[in-house]
Amino acid sequence: MKGSGTAVVFVDSNVLYSKTLLDWLALIYVSNTSEPPYVVHWSDDVMAEAMHHLRKANPGWPGGHIARFRERLEETFEVGHVRDYAVDTSYAGPDPDDAHVHAAAAACQADYLLTCNVRHFRTGADELPYEVVSPDEFFVLVDDVAPRVVYAVVGEQISHWMKKSRDVDLVGALQRAGCPDFAARVLGHLRRRAMAGS
Asked: Which end of the chain has fewer CB atoms at under 10 Å, N or C?
């Protein structure tokens, strides 16, 4: 990750909407092993998009389920709420609907824009004030700078999923979420944990 200290990361709705990606993002962020390697920023526009897609995929969920999901996100990433930003209608990206994402990322002085739609932002037209990264790229960067945190979160994930099911497939879930390189890193951590007997 860039330089030293805590990176500022603005998160697009498609990352918040993915259970696998959101679990890793949140668990690394709240891990009590050390200072988190990043702080997560989000906007009401991004949250609204994530909630829209969540509702569309789960039309039968009761309202309280949707509300609790949003409340947990807001509580976990409370310090990163980006409220005030001006949307530039001359935004040069290929999708004008992404102008609000660019505006909020710029407003919070993000080091990284974390999105599954990297091609929507890496236009080459203008020098962006942040680096656009996919979840796979981002989590590999996190593992580069904070491998002990990722190692600990691997353990937390195993404990969590073992309570729900005997079938724990952290690597497969990451591969399905578009993170093959980070999945390989997690596999390495799993092997180290197995050798350590933890």
From this structure: C
All residues at 6 or more sequence positions from 35 whose CB lies less than 8 Å from its CB, including other chains? 6
Residues 1-31 have pLDDT tens digits of 655 568 999 999 999 999 999 999 999 999 8
How far is residue 131 from each of residues 21, 110, 123, 140, measured CA to CA in Å?
A: 19, 8, 12, 15
Dist. CA 51–CA 135, nearest whole Å: 19
Assess contact for 153 and 30: CB atoms under 8 A: no
Which residues, including other chains, have CB under 8 Å from residue 127's CB and lie 6 or more apart?
A: none
DSSP category for residue 8:
E
Short-list 130, 95, 179, 189, CA closest to 11: 130
Q: Is the dihedral of CA 49, 54, 58, 63 positive or negative?
A: negative
Q: How many CA atoms lie within 13 A of 140 on its CB side?
A: 12
pTM, entire model? 0.91
Asked whether the beta carbons of 29 and 38 are under 8 A apart, the reply is yes
pLDDT in tens, 55-102: 999 999 999 999 999 999 999 999 999 999 999 877 777 788 889 999
Tokens 């998009």 appear where? 49
Taking alpha carbons only, the member of 159, 45, 193 closest to residue 107 is: 45
